[in-house]
Specification:
There is one protein chain. The chain is of the alpha/beta class and about 425 residues long. It folds into 2 domains: about 240 residues, Type I PLP-dependent aspartate aminotransferase-like (Major domain) (Aspartate Aminotransferase, domain 2), CATH 3.40.640.10; about 130 residues, Aspartate Aminotransferase, domain 1. The longest helix is centred in the C-terminal third of the chain and has 36 residues. It starts with 9 loop residues before the first helix and ends in a 9-residue tail after the last helix. Bound molecules: pyridoxal-5'-phosphate. The site of pyridoxal-5'-phosphate has 15 residues, from helix 4.
């Protein structure tokens, strides 16, 4: 596939670009069951709003105080997005300029730490995301990262070890990041905030919550509410359980003017010049969808995730956290080490039109990220297409046929297409 030379003419390149888009739309857009936990699809109307003149423009600066002319509608849309999101999430400050969740994390680290400080977060097997760890924001900012002690068997923080660690590092600790990438159960924002508040009553440590995966569940009131539990800053993507355009945002409560100013400057001019304005009309539209349909959408997501986990378990798979009810989010984690591991299993599933990703599981060696034991599944996209508990059972049966009974891959791939054929229309929209 990858070649150093290019034998195609300019016209052939044009044809190829068109063909690739058409093939992608057909395959990933209508024939596959997508269980990647970090993706979603926008409604047709939001998608229409995504392509506009805004995609050619700049609006450096803040609403009402720009460095460019021609921005009256950019001002209007950015202002409406921020006000709508404040209302939806109970935030006092919202910044929609970050163009991705990773960039939003970087902005938070840039605003609230300086090189040499210490930050805490979950390591990757415990669900932490690379974007705020040593190779991500923390590394870029020259910070030392200390792991939040985690008990992989019970999916819980080891509070005693956490309190002891806190005493050791409190002089240099500036930020604690909760939230993550493998995210089956709410994180203990309240408990961590309480322990930190007792040890450091001067509020010198920011409790930061990365809501990238669960923003849509929070919007629909079906997951923890991080601001009410003690988080001061929430960063996120806008395209995972929140079914918006690919992008990012940062929100805050109880921040001082100085902290807001640091955050604003970290985003612009720190990290963005042009902030991809064409996202914003779609983001506003999806925010309105979530205000209207978010509760029923998020409820169905969680119910589907539980149903898929149970059905996979009943079909012979090692689903994590059975004793805790498997999941309270959109995600399901499965240990497939006996079937060859996360890499070959996810590849085989993709051949059968079921799209997933290999994933480290709690307690695994962080260095095993290319050969992990697990796969991570997310049901937010199939839910958006209208699938319910019954379809989760059908999906689990397809998993069994393919991976345990070793049925013919082509045959299963066709069955997946047939199932998907019934679910082409995006739901939970106006
Ligand atoms: C917890 C978490 N934070 C941040 C990100 C990065 O988000 P983005 O892809 O929008 O940069 C991800 C990506 O999946 C994630 O899982």
């Amino acid at each position: 596939m990858v070649s150093q030379t290019l034998e195609l003419s300019a016209l052939e390149l044009v044809e190829r670009a068109k063909k690739v888009v058409s093939l992608q739309n057909k395959w990933r857009g209508s024939e596959t069951i997508n269980l990647i936990a970090s993706e979603n699809v926008m409604s047709e109307e939001a998608t229409r709003l995504y392509v506009s003149d805004f995609m050619h423009r700049y609006a450096e600066g803040e609403v009402g105080d720009r460095y460019y002319e021609g921005v009256k509608f950019a001002d209007e849309i950015e202002d409406l997005c921020e006000r709508a999101l404040k209302k939806l999430f109970g935030a006092e400050y919202v910044n929609v300029k970050p163009i991705s969740g990773a960039q939003a994390n970087l902005a938070v680290f840039y605003a609230f730490t300086k090189p040499g400080d210490v930050v805490m977060s979950f390591d990757l097997p415990s669900g932490g995301h690379i974007s705020y760890r040593e190779f991500g924001a923390a590394g870029c900012r020259g910070l030392s990262v200390v792991d939040i002690p985690y008990k992989p068997d019970s999916f819980e923080v080891d509070y005693e070890a956490f309190a002891n660690k806190l005493k050791e590092i409190k002089d240099k600790l500036k930020l604690i990041t909760l939230g993550g990438s493998l995210f089956l159960f709410p994180h203990p924002v309240k408990e961590i905030s309480k322990i930190v508040g007792e040890e450091l009553p001067d509020q010198s440590v920011i409790i930061h919550y990365d809501a990238a995966h669960v923003l849509g569940l929070i919007a629909g009131g079906q997951f923890q509410q991080p601001f009410k539990e003690g988080a001061k800053v929430v960063s996120s993507s806008t395209h995972k359980t929140f079914p918006g355009p690919q992008g990012g945002l940062v929100m805050g409560v109880s921040l001082t003017d100085k902290q807001i100013s640091s955050l604003r400057k970290a985003v612009f001019p720190g990290l963005v010049s042009n902030h991809h304005l064409h996202r914003l009309p779609a983001l506003l539209y999806v925010t309105a969808e979530m205000m209207t349909f978010g509760q029923s959408y998020a409820k169905q997501i969680v119910s589907n995730a539980k149903a898929l986990a149970k059905a996979l378990d009943e079909n012979g798979f090692r689903v994590l956290a059975k004793e805790k009810g498997y999941t309270q989010s959109h995600q399901v984690a499965v240990n497939v080490s006996e079937l060859g591991g996360g890499a070959p299993v996810s590849q085989k599933l993709a051949q059968a039109n079921i799209i997933t990703n290999k994933n480290l599981l709690p307690g695994e060696n962080p260095r095993a990220s290319r050969t992990p034991s697990g796969i991570r599944l997310g049901v937010q996209e199939v839910t958006r297409y209208g699938m319910k508990e019954k379809e989760m059972e059908r999906i689990a049966e397809l998993f069994r046929k393919l991976l345990i009974e070793k049925a013919d891959v082509e045959k299963v791939a066709n069955e997946v297409k047939v199932l998907r054929q019934e679910f082409q229309q995006i739901q939970y929209t106006f």
